[in-house]
Backbone:
């Protein structure tokens, strides 16, 4: 631990103490575990980046937020690193959001009380921190985000002045103990889209990728077909994050379980309910994509449709077929509806190997949906 503690030593004049490092430790530790299946949490690369961004000077504030009743074995190591551990107890009804709220409140408090803090480094990937980032930047503060690939919300990445993937800070790449959940990886964003920085970004620091969880099938990252963005917008999907069919079938039972237990009506309610109920099975990015997609196709929370997911229950194959049918209906142009193979290619980002099966399943899904609709009206 000697090398870690040395990272927090350096110049300590008040004028130089301008960096504030805030770590959403629960988010970071769980995301890292999902990616590598490792229990080790190494914050040395994060501390090194914080010092580099502060021209080698002392980190003025370094805090890590978690319910330390569950992460207690890491607390002593953090204290030896010079990082203050802040207790954010998670009560059953609050879920992981208790940590987010505590960290956001303290960041706002520091912004008012500590005029010397000019650069905030937030270690998380949760879009719940977007309002905090907007507030800090509106008060002239610079915000750098750090997160784990596969768990970072693209919206959080975009609102930061700059963003670094934790993996890009390491001397050696993280071993892929868990495969990427069939997501897409976009090309690096143009540097002109972000404010310039005197510190060069590690390779891959502006890339986005999708969510992991319980051993999804391996799949090479590819780009969504050209010209599909407008259609994907109708479905509430990001072209840089599309599920594989197998992964989607794994997630549908979790989605219907949340609907039956919590009955969420809105996208944000569904996203947060999924994240609370299945923290280690569904990444934040997957939760957002599921909530958006199934809201658009009247799977839940609709005042006009039959809210068919609740009626289908955990029958993943039926839900998959109805998803094809309802997506095709949403994408219908005039009297022309895409065939099953076209709908599947759009949803999953590649032409299916079995187009005739997708056509058959979409037709079957339409019949199932009609039966549910008739049952709802009777």
Residues:
């Amino acid at each position: 631990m000697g090398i870690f503690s040395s990272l927090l030593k350096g110049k300590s004049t008040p004028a130089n103490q301008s960096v504030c490092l805030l770590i959403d430790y629960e988010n970071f530790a769980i995301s890292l575990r999902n990616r590598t299946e490792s229990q080790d949490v190494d914050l040395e690369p994060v501390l090194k980046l914080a010092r580099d961004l502060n021209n080698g000077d002392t980190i003025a504030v370094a805090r890590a937020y978690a319910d330390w009743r569950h992460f207690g074995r890491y607390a002593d190591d953090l204290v030896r690193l010079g990082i203050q551990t802040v207790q954010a107890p998670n009560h059953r009804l609050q879920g992981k959001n208790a940590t987010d709220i505590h960290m956001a409140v303290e960041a706002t408090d520091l912004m008012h009380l500590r005029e010397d803090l000019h650069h905030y480094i937030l270690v998380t990937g949760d879009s719940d921190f977007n309002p905090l980032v907007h507030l800090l930047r509106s008060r002239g503060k610079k915000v750098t985000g750090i997160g784990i690939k596969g768990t970072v919300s693209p919206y959080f990445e975009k609102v930061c002045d700059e963003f670094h993937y934790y993996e890009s800070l390491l001397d050696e790449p993280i071993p892929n103990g868990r495969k990427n959940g069939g997501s897409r990886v976009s090309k690096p964003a143009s540097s002109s889209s972000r404010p310039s920085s005197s510190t060069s970004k590690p390779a891959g620091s502006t890339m986005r990728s999708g969510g992991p969880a319980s051993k999804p099938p391996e799949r090479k990252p590819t780009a969504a077909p050209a010209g599909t963005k407008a259609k994907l917008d109708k479905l509430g999907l990001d072209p840089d994050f599309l599920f594989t069919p197998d992964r989607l079938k794994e997630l549908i039972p979790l989605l219907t379980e949340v609907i039956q237990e919590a009955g969420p009506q809105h996208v944000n309610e569904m996203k947060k309910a999924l994240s609370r109920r299945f923290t280690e099975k569904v990444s934040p990015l997957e939760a957002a994509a599921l909530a958006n997609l199934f809201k658009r196709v009247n799977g839940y929370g609709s005042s006009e449709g039959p809210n068919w997911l609740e009626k289908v229950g955990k029958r993943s194959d039926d839900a998959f077929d109805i998803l094809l049918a309802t997506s095709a209906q949403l994408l219908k142009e005039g009297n022309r509806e895409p065939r099953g193979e076209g709908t599947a290619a759009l949803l999953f980002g590649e032409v299916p190997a079995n187009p005739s099966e997708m056509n058959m399943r979409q037709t079957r899904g339409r019949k199932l949906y009609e039966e549910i609709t008739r049952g709802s009206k009777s």
